[in-house]
Amino acid sequence: MVGNDISNFSPGAELLPRTRLLLHQFFSVVGEAIYPPEICHAPDPLKSAWLQYIINDKAFFHVSLATVATCLDFFQRSEKDSEQAILHTNQAFNMINERLSGAEALSDTTIGLACMFSVQESVRGDLEKYNVHLRGLYQMIELRGGIRVFEDNLEVLQKICRTDVQYALHTNSWPRYPYMEIPKRVVEELATTQGCVPGTLSVIFQGASSVVCQLVSDIERCCFMFNDICEKRRPTLASYDFQGTLVSLCHRLVRIRLADNSTLSTVQKACLSGLACYISSLMLQFGRQRHLRCDLLRDELKGVIEEMLGDVSCSAQVRLWLLLLGSISVFELEDDSWLLPLLHLEIKASGLQGWMQIETEMRRFPWIGSFHCPQGKAIWTKVQNLSITPS
């Protein structure tokens, strides 16, 4: 952890060496996955409500360790849950089940537990269990008096809305809680991007509704801002500003994708699918090593790309963006058999020579260099190896 030391606190549970390591990893591994350090400052752990929950609540302590263990399993592509993940999950479940019948059933800590269980299941890719925790979260919030009760607790409010909208994005369902506004500090920063943003998608969406055009413009301008921050041309965002921006863009995108889009062209609809994959790639950043599994978006994007192959109105550059972004955000290793040959054809059709030209073209679309280029270049290298392999 940078700048803060939590190694000496006592959380009300015995701290074995491995447990202490896992606790540190919670704030480094999980923290950086949610708050990418290239773009935003991580919340100060010593001031975080989450640390207070861990210190004072054994159930939260165990669910935090379970989430870390699940993330490590995910990194290592383990085929089954580790003993640590199972142990801490079971202990947390037993404690929360006891709590649900008592006075703490609707506390902020219990609501935080539901959010943490949801994060864990999103990493595991179990949308059914994710939904179970989410429905429990909804019920607790309604019994508390609704989402407005949390307006004075931004950290908890953003966790709730993020949990809600991430599930909506990955299941193509309506989010429960509105989170429409981009934070004021970010709006001020976006105002300085006027005339600087490539606007490739904004051109494609000309003629669409003002709501759609505004979202596309906001995503492009935020992407430009994120790239500037990563390249040290703008100051790093506060954690709550990044989180609020991501949740707002995701919420608005989900609502637009679920609305009547019969007036949109095939290419415009394809680009909305691409934007969903772009947002998904920002949801949890696991060291650029893995992305969350999302079979619904994966199948949708594959279908969109297949449809675009015969559409003369879709440029090779748009198809290449969809293919490369998909390879980073939703496609799996088993997709290489069809993905790599198709990428080879589209790179050739686009007339781009070498990775530098491809990167320059991708930056005309929503594409964050420090996030997407390392994986994109790795995919390009695989394509190059494929093209020189004797048949």
Automatic annotation (TrEMBL):
Keywords attached to this entry: Nucleus
Q: Which Pfam families match?
A: Fungal_trans_2
What name has this protein been given in UniProt? Uncharacterized protein
